[in-house]
Write a structure and sequence with these properties.
heterodimer, A: 275 residues, alpha+beta, 6-stranded mixed beta sheet, 4-stranded antiparallel beta sheet, 5 helices, 12 strands, B: 250 residues, 5-stranded mixed beta sheet
Chain lengths: 275, 250
C-alpha cells in the first residue's frame, strides 16, 4: 500500500538499537544528525529534452526531464503558463517498487515536488504567456526515481529544480494568432531557488536527509521547501506519528540551513542562478 | 522580513483587519457538529464549517478485507476522503483524483497517532469522509468530524484530533480560510493536533510564510483546535444526553 514509507515488522527492534546509537550524536553511516549526504548534480544529459538533471544524494538517484509544449492556459489563469510534475518510482530503484499506476506514496511524493516548485511562486508564470487567454508554455517535468537509499523526496525535488533551472524555451514571434518558434532560446523565468529538505524523526531524534535504513524505522518525516529569503513555500508531514510545535520549528531551522548549503552546490554545479 | 502583498483586485483584508465575510483575523467560521446521525455504521458525524459540509461514517473494528491486509498485532486504519461531484462549482469527476489520494493518506496519518490500533489485532477500522459541499478547509473539517465519529464508535483513542487551516492574507496570518481566501490568499496551512497531548498530527503548507509567520500560524492553529475540541466534546455530550432522555421516555 505504502511502498516507500511502511514500517517493517522488525522495525521496533531496530529502532531500539538505533535510538541508543543516535544518542551518541553519530549515525550508522558516520554522519552527524544534522548532516546531509554528498550531493552530485549533472544536467543536460538528454539532447531531446528541453532540460534534464540527475541528482545523486549518497546512493539515492533521481532523474528529471523537461518537455515543453504550447497549449491553452487554465480558464482561471488565462495569462499564466502551466507547470505539471509527475513522478514514478521505477522498479530499478528498489525490489519493492512495481511498475504500474503510482501508489499513494508516489502520488504524495510527486505532489510535494510539484507544490515546492509551484507554491513558492518562484517561476514567473506570466512570462510563459504567448497569446493571453489562448496560448501559453506548458512545462512538463517528469521525475523518475532510479535508486532508493532513502530521501527520494529531496532527490526528486532537486532533480526537478535543477532541470527547470537549466531548461531552455524557444523564443517566439507572434503575428495575430500565428506563433513561430525561433532558433534563439531563453531560460525558464525563475527568480528564486526553492530547495526541499526532508527531516525524519527516529526515536527521539531528528535526522536530516534520512537513509533507507533510517526511513524504515522513522515514524514521521517532514519536508520543508525554503527559498533564499528564508520563506518556507511548502511543508508536508508524512508518516503515522505526531510532532511537537517546537520540533516543527526545529525542522524549519534545519531545513533552511541545509537548503542554503545545497543552493550553493546547485548554483556551482549548474553555473546558473535564478535571474 | 515583509513579503510583497498580492496585488489582486479586491483586498481580502481591510486596513482594520476585517475579512470579506466580516470575520476578524483570528475568527473561525461558524461551526456546527452533529454525532450519531447514521444508523448502519459504528459511528458517524456531520460537520459544517462555513459553507463546507462533510459527513463521516466509521465501520469497525471489523474483519479486514482483503484478508492479506490484516496485521497480526494491531488493527489497520483505512480512510477515504472523497468529494461528491456536486460539492464544487464545476462538477468533480467521482473517480478519486490524485489530490484525494494524497489527502486520504495525510488524513489517515493524522488520525493514526490517536487511535489505539493495538487493541484490535487483525481487524480493520474504516473511516469514510464524504465532502458534500466544499468551501475550503475540507481536509481539516474532515479530520475534526472523523475523530468525532471514531469517538462515537467507541474506538479507544489517546486523545481527540481536531484540525483547522490557517492562512495568510495581505501579509497577515489568519484563522480558517474560506474558499475565496484560499484561492487568492498568500498561504494555506492545514494543521491537525491532539489538543491534550499538544502534538501536531497533520502539517501541510502551500504558499509562502516567514519563520515568524510559521510560528504565529502554529499558535493560531492551536487556539483554533482548542475551540473545535470544546465543540467536539459538546457534540458528544449532546448525543448522549439526548439518547439517554429518549430512552427514559420509552
Amino acid at each position: 500500500m505504502d511502498s516507500v514509507n511502511s514500517i517493517s515488522e522488525a522495525a521496533p527492534l531496530r529502532l531500539r538499537d538505533l535510538n541508543a546509537v543516535l544518542a551518541t550524536g553519530v549515525r550508522e553511516d558516520g554522519r552527524k544528525l544534522d548532516e546531509y549526504r554528498n550531493i552530485d548534480i549533472k544536467t543536460n544529459l538528454y539532447e531531446k529534452a528541453n532540460g534534464s538533471a540527475m541528482v545523486r544524494i549518497g546512493n539515492t538517484v533521481a532523474v528529471a526531464g523537461i518537455k515543453i509544449a504550447r497549449g491553452a492556459p487554465f480558464p482561471d489563469t488565462p495569462n499564466d503558463g502551466v507547470l505539471t510534475v509527475s513522478l514514478e518510482l521505477l522498479p530499478h530503484a528498489s525490489p519493492d517498487f512495481e511498475p504500474g499506476p503510482p501508489d499513494e506514496g508516489a502520488i504524495e511524493m510527486s505532489r510535494v515536488v510539484d507544490r515546492g516548485l509551484r507554491e513558492s511562486k518562484s517561476i514567473k508564470y506570466d512570462e510563459l504567456c504567448i497569446i493571453p487567454g489562448k496560448s501559453v508554455w506548458i512545462i512538463y517535468v517528469d521525475v523518475y526515481a532510479l535508486d532508493h537509499d532513502g530521501n527520494l523526496q529531496d532527490a526528486a525535488g532537486l532533480a526537478a529544480l535543477a532541470a527547470v533551472l537549466t531548461a531552455k524555451l524557444p523564443e517566439v514571434k507572434v503575428e495575430g494568432d500565428t506563433v513561430t518558434e525561433l532558433e534563439t532560446k531563453r531560460p525558464i523565468p525563475i527568480v528564486e531557488t526553492p530547495v526541499p529538505v526532508t527531516v525524519a524523526k527516529v526515536g527521539d531524534h531528528l535526522l536530516v536527509d534520512p537513509s533507507a535504513a533510517e526511513e524504515e524505522v522513522s515514524s514521521v518525516r517532514v519536508t520543508m521547501t525554503t527559498i533564499e529569503s528564508g520563506v518556507v513555500a511548502s511543508i508536508q508531514k508524512s508518516g503515522s506519528d505526531s510532532i511537537t510545535m517546537e520540533e516543527a520549528l526545529k525542522i524549519y531551522d534545519l531545513a533552511f540551513a541545509r537548503a542554503k548549503e545545497i543552493r550553493g552546490k546547485l548554483t556551482a554545479a549548474l553555473g546558473v542562478s535564478p535571474a | 522580513m515583509v513579503e510583497a502583498v498580492d496585488s489582486g483586485s479586491k483586498p481580502l483584508l481591510s486596513p482594520d483587519g476585517i475579512r470579506t465575510d466580516g470575520r476578524k483575523i483570528d475568527e473561525m467560521r461558524k461551526v456546527k457538529m452533529e454525532v450519531g446521525l447514521l444508523k448502519n455504521c459504528s459511528g458517524s458525524a456531520y460537520i459544517e464549517q462555513g459553507k463546507t459540509k462533510i459527513i463521516v461514517a466509521v465501520h469497525g473494528p471489523r474483519e479486514a478485507h482483503p484478508k492479506h491486509l490484516a496485521q497480526p498485532g494491531r488493527a489497520i486504519l483505512r480512510t477515504r476522503y472523497h468529494m461528491a461531484p456536486f460539492s464544487t462549482s464545476d462538477r468533480k469527476s467521482p473517480a478519486p483524483s490524485r489530490r484525494e489520494i494524497e489527502i486520504t493518506k495525510v488524513i489517515r496519518e493524522a488520525l493514526e497517532p490517536a487511535v489505539m490500533l493495538d487493541e484490535f489485532p487483525k481487524t480493520s477500522i474504516d473511516v469514510f469522509i464524504e465532502v458534500l459541499q466544499a468551501d475550503a478547509g475540507t481536509r481539516s473539517a474532515g479530520i475534526t468530524a472523523a475523530a468525532l465519529a471514531l469517538a462515537e464508535a467507541g474506538i479507544p483513542m489517546r486523545d481527540m484530533v481536531a484540525a483547522v487551516a490557517v492562512g495568510k492574507l495581505e501579509g497577515r496570518v489568519v484563522m480558517d480560510l474560506n474558499e475565496e481566501e484560499d484561492e487568492h490568499g498568500q498561504a494555506d496551512m492545514p494543521v491537525a493536533m491532539m489538543p491534550n497531548v499538544n502534538r501536531i498530527t497533520l502539517l501541510q503548507l502551500n504558499g509562502r510564510l516567514t519563520r515568524a509567520e510559521l510560528e504565529e500560524g502554529l499558535s493560531m492553529a492551536r487556539r483554533g483546535v482548542d475551540q473545535l475540541y470544546e465543540m467536539q466534546k459538546q457534540a458528544l455530550r449532546e448525543k448522549y444526553t439526548s439518547s439517554e432522555s429518549a430512552q427514559e421516555e420509552d
